[in-house]
Amino acid sequence: MNTRHLNHSHSITSIPFSAGLIETRRQHTTLLFHFVVIVSLLSVSASASAQQVQLNWAGTASPNAAAAAGRPDDVFVTGAAGTSTFGAFGVGSGNTSAYSLSSLETLLSITPGGLAHGDFIAFEQNGTPSITFESGTWTFSDGFNSLSVTHTFGNTPGQDTPGVLALGNITLANYTTFFGLPASSGAGDIAYIVFNIAGVSAVNPQASTFGVTLVSPGGNVGTPDMDAMGTMAIPEPASSHLLLFMVPIAAGLCYTKRAAIRRLHSAASDG
Q1: Distance CA 231, CA 149 (A)
Q2: DSSP secondary structure code for residue 55 in this structure
Q3: Are 269 and 18 in contact (CB under 8 A)?
Q4: Nearest Cα to 136, choosing from 200, 231, 225?
């Protein structure tokens, strides 16, 4: 009689004990999943803030625009009507630079993420402050495909033919500071133009055969005084791969935990 009573008591108390264990397992599973997701999102945020953009500057430029070869140096040649050609992007000593993407967006007064689709940028000097990039027709080619984009002075990106992503101005002080140049005593400021070539064409700006032709129409606002131009490459953040890696692991761990909980629940019910 006593033995039966002890066995009966054991079977009664084992069920709440197992139920408590199951609830603890559930809590651990939830905490584990939240921890993995939070760590992944923090990694993405940190990587985004430190994301780099690589600029490959023109290695060659036609004689009437020779100052546009190489990285920004605050050396300009007065623009002239006619055709200029540029090539060998990223070729030659000092013609590849890496910058913080967020810092470049700040320099250009572009909202965060605004350069995500940019793949080509050019800078020109203007003697009068707040004058936007001067007119010209840009033709981009990778040797197989080509794209022509006409920018008209005074237009916003949406008013030009497709391909212009952003336009704006930079003070000379901010320009020289960002690119590590001596302080400039010049007047005016720097105008820039950013293109989204790959977004509207099959041209590959990162191809070794990539080249640019600029036709300047002439006149007061049709002869850009070029300082530098280059292709832009924005690598995908490494943490995005980490997120893709960690979330399935978290899901797998949760599945394993749920299976263990079901087994415990089944054992408790049988008991």
Answers
A1: 16
A2: E
A3: no
A4: 225
Ramachandran region of residue 169, left (φ > 0), alpha (ψ -120 to 50) or beta?
beta
pLDDT, tens only, 222-261: 999 999 999 999 986 654 444 444 445 545 555 555 655 5
pLDDT in tens, 176-188: 999 999 988 777 8
138 closest CA partner among 231, 38, 269, 56? 231
Tens of pLDDT, residue by residue over 99-145, are 999 999 999 999 999 999 999 999 999 888 888 999 999 999 999 99
Q: How many CB atoms sit inside 10 A of residue 117's CB?
A: 17
Coarse DSSP helix, strand, coil percentages of the chain, rounded to the nearest 5 percent: 40, 25, 35
- Provide the sign of the torsion angle of the four alpha carbons 91, 112, 224, 140, taken in this order: positive
Amino acid 27 reads Q
